[in-house]
Amino acid sequence: MNSDVLISIRDVSMNYGTGRQDAIEHVSVDIKKGEILALVGSNGSGKSTLMKGMLKLMPFTCGEMERKSGLRIGYMAQMHTAVRDFPATAREVVLSGTRQARFSPFYTKQQKADAEEAMRLMEINDLAAQHIGNLSGGQLQRVLLARALAGKPELLVLDEPCSALDPGTTHALMELFTRLRDEQGVSIVISTHDWHFVRHHADRVLVLNHRLEYVGEISGWNGREDEHTCHH
Amino acid sequence: MPSLSLWDILVHPITLRAYTVGALVSLCLAVMGVILVLKRYAMIGHGLGEIGFASTALAALIGLYEYSLAVSIPLVCLSSLLIMYFDRKSSMGGDVFIGIFATTALAAGVIAGRFTDGYSIESSLFGSIYGVSNAYLIGVIALSAAILIVFTLLYTRLFSVTFDETYARAEDMKADSYQFIISLLTSVAVVLGMRVLGAMMISSFIIFPALTARRLSRSFKGMIAMAALAAFVSFTVGMLLSVLSQTTARPLPVGACVVLVSLVLMLLSMGVASLRSKK
Fold first, then answer.
1. What are phi and psi of A230, to 5 degrees?
2. How many Cβ atoms from other residues are within 10 Å of residue A101's Cβ?
3. How close B81 gets to chain A, by Cα (Å)?
4. How are beta strands A5-14 and A62-67 bridged, if at all?
5. Please, which residues have CB within 8 angstroms of residue B246's CB and are 6 or more apart in sequence?
6. What does the pLDDT average to over B15-28?
7. How many CA atoms lie within 13 A of B164 on its CB side?
8. How far apart are CA A82 and CA A73, in angstroms?
9. B114, exposed or middle or buried, with CB in 10 Å at 0-12, 13-18, 19+?
């Protein structure tokens, strides 16, 4: 595998149980170092499924994947897998995303610093001691994003990270993603319905409709933008 | 102990040994209970208690009652791994397998108990302050310490796996191995507690402290500390009630007394929590 490639997926299909229609069929794509790859497609087109495959949360029914060994990934799921009434503070959640170094009841100084830094980027330092159940949807989303950032990932996999955010916050986040790519070389795979983001910030776009319709630079996409979007 | 004064009973080696065992094991079960309750897997404790009962009865049947820990721990650990394995392989859900294992074990244990002279099925099921030898006490102290040390060392990882298993998997944490560790630690704690607390009562030592703590805690760390405190208070008060009853015509089993005290504590915590939320 080319050293500039973090994940290489070749001709993979996935489904939710035998006999069901494949959620994705014969998709191939390379995730390159330092790129923002936008996944677009209507709801149910297989974007989340493809992400789960990359993260090894769901098996491929055929095809293969190569991942850079020891690849550090930060993930944010679309449907929060976290339980809201779980007794945890925002800080505890963000800390859980830091790189686990040693076996200890305490987080290291480095882990605490990484968590603080991630909370600062997400502007949630003042929420750190709050119980997650007291947070609004948008605040919780920022906490979960901070968790994904806290492990200093090489690759961020974000499933519609802005769905619960207001336009102002969304805009700030998009700027942040671009900065993470430019300054730290972080790769970002992001599913979105926001073509404005795709056009202005993404390096490449992957259009999915169970099958791969297109992957490449946005300028090469001839299809209509709105037929693959679902406006909220 | 009808001829002894109350003080004599309280400081009697039998009482002190039972208290030490019960308090340590309550603590272990309470901290494991936080994880099991939050993962919605608390009923495993009930199943393991009944499997533990069967294994103790088996140990008594083959003349190894004094070494029942050595017989029960491997058997209960193995059963919990099997339950977990079938739970993952099948689409029916873990509670079905807990049910199958637990009732089979209960039936086998009762039958094995009937064939063993001098073996009290009732005290096995509901707990007794008698029957803690020095060797047993040392075994419990060593193993409880081991459980608490492993739990402490894995604390940050246990939080990750309990809070969001999907995320832990996505980060390439070996979530399955932590599940196994949780099962094994719980199995050992359940076995350690059976003799004093009672096989049928064990699951409440897992569930009640966690529920008491949950409503009052806003952090994971706080919930663990609160559950440990709740377990300690419930056990101490329950044990005291049981000891006091030993001089009467109707001595009460420890496990049952502690469970009722735990329930009161849980109801109190619910009251406090709802008052707090109205403010």
1. -130, 100
2. 11
3. 22
4. antiparallel
5. B1, B9, B129
6. 95
7. 25
8. 18
9. exposed
DSSP structure string for A16-72:
SSTTSPPSEEEEEEEEETT-EEEEE-STTSSHHHHHHHHTTSS--SEEEEEE-TT--
Alpha-carbon separation of residue A144 from A56, A161, B120 (angstroms): 20, 9, 53
In whole angstroms, give the CA distance from residue A14 to residue B16: 60
Q: Which of B77, B186, B189 is nearest to B139 (CA)?
A: B189
Give the closest-approach CA distance of A105 to chain B in angstroms: 5
* Spatial contact of A96 and A147, defined as CB atoms under 8 Å apart: yes
Identify the closest residue of chain A to B215 by CA–CA distance: A87
Q: Which residue has the tokens 């430019």?
A: A182
Interface of A with B in 82-101 (CB under 8 A): 82-83, 86-89, 92-93, 95-97, 100
DSSP states of A182-203: HHH--EEEEE-S-HHHHHHH-S
Give residues with Cβ within 8 angstroms of A90, minimum separation 6: A119, A124, A127, A128, A129, A130, A132, A135, A139, A143, A146
CA angle A69, A73, A76 (to 5 degrees): 155
A53 to chain B, any CB pair closer than 8 A? The answer is no
Q: Please give chain A's pLDDT, 232 residues, in tens.
A: 778 899 999 999 998 876 667 789 999 999 999 999 999 998 888 999 999 999 999 999 999 999 998 899 999 987 665 567 899 999 999 999 998 877 888 999 999 999 999 999 999 999 999 999 999 888 898 999 999 999 999 999 999 888 878 888 888 888 889 999 998 899 999 999 888 889 988 999 999 998 999 999 988 887 766 554 444 3
Encoded tokens for B46: 């009930």
Tell me the pLDDT tens digit for each residue of B173-205: 888 889 899 999 999 999 999 889 999 899 999
- Tell the residue number behind the tokens 């244990």, with chain if given: B109
Q: Is the CB of A104 less than 8 angstroms away from the CB of B153?
A: yes
Tell me, what amino acid is at B38?
Answer: L
Distance CA A24, CA A58 (A): 12
A73-95 residue pLDDT tens: 999 987 665 567 899 999 999 99
Per the DSSP assignment, residues forming a β-bridge with A74 are A156
What domains are defined for chain B?
6-271 (1.10.3470.10)
Q: Which ipTM score applies to this complex? A: 0.87
Whether residue A107 and residue B156 make contact (CB cut-off 8 A), yes or no, is: yes
A165 near A123, Cβ under 8 Å? Answer: no
Q: With a threshold of 0.80, does the pTM exceed it?
A: yes
